[in-house]
């Protein structure tokens, strides 16, 4: 599967944001009952906590939305699961205030079930795949295109890095044991906390790295090997939801609607995700 950059222009995305501002005056998202008792909105500010898989698209789209709307987007980042100090669960547990969380859909569902995100506020933004990368120029180039080739590459790698987030949990707790290689590769495998896997591979601290494709493609010093084979691929959506007790739920709904719109689809696709909305 090749990821071909999609042509998009700043003017087109800004125009889409402007158009949506009018359309968002009556959001079509379900409005949770909690909104009726929500605090007075923080005028002109939306606070967002995003996990890594959507970061590349988000870091392009948020400034464009700010420019078009005049709304200040305050951004923070953390892993969708785990107990690292900057992870989404840890930050919400500490009582840090956010309007929106963006993370893997199954992790968002858990926050809704626990009452930390508003029921009915979940919106899918893009589908993600897990891929692999090595440092540029690595020879022989590992092959991950088929299940037998993936197993051989895992066994042959000197060291392996995988994310501490949802994709890494799937690899270490499900896929690698299911492939029958975990007992042989566990000692040379490392879960990466509070850092992107690509950064670890780029500086030579791991030979073979696995993470969401959207996070690997941002590293120009790496050779992207491709996604995992379809039959063992974990296909998850990155979704946005409104935090329970959000200071600005109305501003949150408008920004989420923009991120899920056709105006944002080209940017989302260019960063390695399959957007839910289709580009104009």
Gyration radius, to the nearest Å?
A: 19 Å
Structural shape:
globular
CATH architecture of the largest domain: 3-Layer(aba) Sandwich
Question: Helical element count?
Answer: 11
* Count of DSSP strands: 11
Query: What's the helix-strand series?
Result: HEHEHEHEEHEHHEHEHEEHHE
What CATH calls the topology of the largest domain is D-Maltodextrin-Binding Protein, domain 2
What is the domain tally?
A: 2
Alpha-beta content class: alpha/beta
Q: Tell me the name of the CATH class of the largest domain.
A: Alpha Beta
Task: State which percent range the strand residues make up.
Answer: 15-25%
Residue windows where pLDDT falls under 50 for at least 5 positions: 1-9, 22-42
**Roughly how much helix do the residues carry, as a percent range?**
25-40%
Largest sheet: 6 strands, mixed
Please provide a written account of the structure.
This protein has 280 residues and is of the alpha/beta class. It folds into two domains: 10-127 and 237-275, D-Maltodextrin-Binding Protein, domain 2; 130-232, 3-Layer(aba) Sandwich (D-Maltodextrin-Binding Protein, domain 2). The protein contains eleven helices and eleven strands. The strands form two sheets. A six-stranded mixed β-sheet has the order 2-1-3-10-4-11. Strand 1 (45-50), helix 2 and strand 2 (72-77) form a beta-alpha-beta unit. The relative contact order is 0.24.
